Each structure stands twice: as C-alpha cells, then as structure tokens.
Structures
1.
Amino acid sequence: MISRRKINIHWIKRLSCQFAFALILGILLAEHGGWQILLSAVMLAIAVLFPQFLKANYRECVLRGALLIAAGALGTGCYVRQVGRWEKESQKLLCGQQISVCGRLICKEQKNERWQLTLALPGYENRVIVSTKDGGYPLDCVLSVKGPVRDFNSPRNEGQFNEKQYYKNRKTIGRMSAESIVCIRAPSGIYEWRENLYRLRMQLCAVYE
C-alpha cells in the first residue's frame, strides 16, 4: 500500500514538472518564437512520450501528449491575453498627453533625487509609474494624480536595454510626470503595516550603507 502510494506521488510530481515545462515553453514560444524554442518543445515531447511508446503503453502516451499540448496552449493563451490586455489599456491611457488618474500606491522608490510611485489603477490590470519630487505618501494610500504621460522607450540599437519590454513584463503601462498630487485616502491603524515595513526596510538599508 505504501509503495503504491509512493509510486502515485512520484507519478504526480513527474507529471506536474512536465506540465510546468510545457507551460513555460508555450509562453516563450508565443513571446519570442524561434526554432530553438520549437526544438525544445519537440525534445520535451520525445523525452516524455518515447519511453511510454516503447512500453506499448499507448493510453499513457496519449494522456501525456494531450497534457503537454494543453499546457502549451494554456501558456500561449495566457501570454496572448496578457499582451492584448496590456495593449488595450495602454492605448486607452496614452490616448492623450495630459491625463488625470486615481489609484492605490503599491510601490515607491527613490531614484536620482526623484521618487517613482507605482499606482494600481481601478479597472486596469496594469499599472502606471508617477515621477515626482515628493515621496512622503504612505503605501496603500489612494492618490489622485494629474500630469503628462509618455510611453516607455523602445531600443534603437541591437543589444540596447529594452525599457518598454522591461516595464511591460512588470505590467506597467507608462510614466507620468506629476503636476499635482492629492492624497484622497491614507491608511490608518493596522492598515499601515506595509508602510511600517517599508520604513523598517529603509532603516536597515541605512545601517548597512
């Protein structure tokens, strides 16, 4: 009974790993394409299905083949959906140079004497970065920001840092230069835990510096 349970657990783990690899290959194939990734997918299919084919275990072979195809299709579909949503929200947000948004502050970082505030916008899956000189807003507060917005830069030369792709992978649409910021709602009580952790992190960083 115990050995059978171990075999089942081993079979489930191996199947899960194969599913994860096929899922990742599906995402990479949709994002980059190329014969290298396609060859990797073919090699994965051969490595998974060939041993079952030699054992004449055709039912297992069909099951694993269907699982690999489903995982690859799921990865491709998830990537296509994410890209489509990003492009749709990007066109909607970047339709005008001067915009006004309201969102929740989920991340803040100081760079070159300016603050980069990341806002999660209601109704959007993606985010926007606000560049401002004032970073004294607590995390999880709701900010109303008005100012010009621009898209991220695409690489002009081969091998150059792809700023647009980098922020696209981080689900960030564009960067705003804040002309006015109004804090609509600030967290209080136990809801200040993220801001308290952020301050503790900054204190630890100061100690190490």
Note: The CA atoms of residues 92 and 184 lie 24 Å apart.
2.
Amino acid sequence: ILKSDAAVDLVHFTILRPPEKQDGTPISQLSLIAFPTRELFSVKIDEFDLIIFDRYRRRGVLPTVYFDNIARFVRNGGALLVASGPDFASSTSIYHSPLAPVLPATPTGSLIERPFRATVSPRGARHPVTRGLPGANSDPPAWGRWFRAVEAVPERGETALNTSDGQPLLILRREEAGRVALLLSDPAWLWSR
C-alpha cells in the first residue's frame, strides 16, 4: 500500500540475517549498504511520519537509546505500527524496551494458535480505522481465517479488532500527540488473499 502512493517516501530495511548467525561470511559481504541506525533513529527520526516494526525482535541491532528516541517520536506526534507475531510474546519482545510505556498492551507470553476469524469490536465499529470494513457485518465475517495471535492484556487504548473468542487483535492508542497501533498477529497477509 505504501509503495503504491507516489507521495510517500518509503525507507524500508529488512533484516534477513540475525547478528548471532556466524558462518564466516565477511561483514562487508552481508549487505549492499551499512544499516544507518544512528542517522535514522537519532538524526532524521523527526522527519518520519510512521515507523513500522513488522515481526521485529530485539537482537542488538538497535541500541536501547534508539527505542527511547522512538518513544519520544511518538509522544511528539509521530505514529508507530507494531505488527507482531510470536516475537512479541518472547523475552526478545520490543515490549521489553523503552517502547513499553507507549505500547497499548502487555504480552502474557502465550500464543493463540488455532484458526479464527477476526471480528470488529463494538468500539472498532465506530473507529475510523476499522469502521466500514467490507465483510465485517456478516456472521461470521466475510474474510479469511487467521491462524495465530499473541495473547496480550490491553492496558490502554481501544481494541478495534478481536479474535473470534474475544481476545484483542488490533489495539489503537493516542499517546500524547502521537498514535500507536498494535496488531497482535503476523499472518495478516492472508487477508489480502
């Protein structure tokens, strides 16, 4: 979606190789460019509108101070989307970083691993992000099944989507001048199918 809009400048980095993997490959051959963490998360962070963590887990790539900067970025008017998977329930979760105070839910450490259909919550039916979703008004909803979600306790914000048994799936929150969305599942790409 973001790539299809010519008005959007998208900076996207994918970390395919965890730092702990050691197979003798020289560092200079691991990427085409060095990951500009200091430039992105200290110098230019205020130039962004949205930061997305897609199935991210802490592996030492981003120092703790950069998570502080991201939390400040959100409070000052930026937006954060965390699309999580099993990583959010683990000890390497970004929840266990300075981002915790801006995140709207606390992971329990458990996963929901069974097929379910996402449902729009009563608050989600009125929220601009999820109201009017095609297929939401039928029972069951007229969209594909999801197969995994992270169990979490909503602490603040609004639950816009739930699992079929009422567990939170998408939680939206205003944090001072900014906004945060926490999607507690990683196979969302199935929806587009």
Note: The longest strand covers residues 105-112.
3.
Amino acid sequence: LTYHRQEQKLSCHICGHSEKVPAVCPNDSCKNPAIRFAGTGTQKVEETLAKLFPDARTHRMDADTMKRKDDYRKILGDFRVGKIDILVGTQMIAKGLHFPNVTLVGIIFADLALHQPDFRAGERTFQLLTQVAGRAGRGDIEGEVVVQAFTPFHPAIQFARRHDFI
C-alpha cells in the first residue's frame, strides 16, 4: 500500500483498495505507536522542491493528480507556456514531449526497474533513461541531466550515460 499524506490514507495502485492510516503498527505483536512512513515518491519530491525553491511554481504529474480526462493536457499546456517552473512526475512525462525551454532533467531512483524480475530490465532501464534525458536541451540552450541511482555503474545506466545504443 502506498501512503498518501494529504488524504491520510493507504492505497493500492493496482486494485484500488484503500484504508485509513493506522495510528499504531498493525502487527499484533508490535502495536508500536512510533510507526513511520517514508519514501521518495513524487509527493515527497514535490514537497522538498517547494522548500528548496519557494518562488518556483512546482506541479506534480502522476496517477494521483491525473483524475480528469483533461488534466494531462492542461498541466502540459501550463508547463509549455511557462505557468509551471518545475514539473515533477512519473514515467508518464518521459516519452514524446517536446519542450524547448527544458534545460534540466533529474531522474530519481533511476535503477528501480533494474531490480525487477524481468530479463528485459536492463533494456527497459536504458530506454527510459534515454527517453527522459532526451527531454532536456531541445531548444537553443544546452540541457543537463542529473541521475540518482543506487547502482550507478550498472551497464544499462552507463550505456545510457554515453548514449551507446549499440
């Protein structure tokens, strides 16, 4: 279950099940009231960016914020015309978008997919990193990409870093 701070609920993004956040650890042998919720999801990244860049207009684009049919188009339109300074999102903003004013792209936990039980994990990671990196520097100003990973020397990450498609 994924913790959603604003709604104070736990939700499964696969089946839609949700429940209240427990006040104590749900394990019967524990029941510790010092239960903590931690992570590096888009909501946490958005909160951190708001603290670091208080004057920037930051918006989040993920499954939780895309509720209505026109949300995707509206947010991307606002980003295109400069109403949004920093766009935080999931893989949904990685592909096929052309914004000449994007000069910096940050990829957090870039190696997440590498640890999935899939023989194509390396190829998929390479493709995603390459696609996301391609969002930066499409205009007159050169772009920069910052990648955070726990296994930065994995071949898929290193090949993406060097644009080594072969």
Note: DSSP finds four helices and seven strands in the chain.
4.
Amino acid sequence: MLCELLTTETIRVGVEAQDWQEVVDVTGDLLLNTGAIETSYIDAMRETIEELGPYVVLAPGIALLHSRPEGGVNRICMSLVILDPPVEFGHPDNDPVDLAFALGGVDESSHMEALSQLAEGLSQEALVARLREAKSPEEAAAVFCQGPDSDA
C-alpha cells in the first residue's frame, strides 16, 4: 500500500522549510495537488499541533502529520518531505525532524494498513537510512516499493 501512496507526486527531497508550519504546508500541498485532500485538512493538521503540541514527532527525526478524517480528506493518502536542513517542532527528545510524513484517512480505520506498513518500515534502520540518503523522489519512492535491502 505504501508503494501506491508514496509516489514521485507525493514525495519531495531536499526541502528547506523555515519552521514546522511550513513543513505542514509543503506536505499538505503535495496531497492537495493530487486531489486527496481539501485545503481545510492542511489547516486541521496545523491546528492539531497547535492544540496538542509536537506529539506528531514519533521518533528521532520523524514526524507523522495528521488530523481527523472529517478535516477534509477525500481518499486515503500519504506524502513525504525529506528536509534539509532538519526543522525543530518543539519535541524535547526527537527534534529536529528531517523526515515528515503526512497521512490522511477517510474514516477512523481505513488508513490503518498504511499506518501499520509505515511503522514497520520505519522500524528498520536500513530503510530509514536509505530514505535519508535519497537524492530524488524516485529514489525515496523506491525505498518503499523495493524494501530496505534493494540496491535500487
């Protein structure tokens, strides 16, 4: 499923962002441009962080941006922005962030398979290292389509 969601259309590499708000905008714009979300979902992701804090920074250097499905999600979707330089989100242990994913689900459960696959992938050090080394959206997409041990 990640191979279908994370494509060259929904991945950007080497992105410079001034702050976490701009990271939300960039990850959201990738989904907006594919028609997967409405502009309101980008606002909802930002509001979620403003209200609940930087809990979206799940692991060192990795953020999973999201909000409630009713915030403007048209279909299950995911984007990835590889930041250079990394950006502070305000998390006491896991900042700065260099891998920012945005996830949208149409209900409470339909996106769980994608989330499970993402968690599995991000638990593999080799996969995360390959993502951080990717020089193009094609290279980053190949990480999810070919796995951590591929030479592609």
Note: Confidence is low (pLDDT under 50) at residues 148-152.
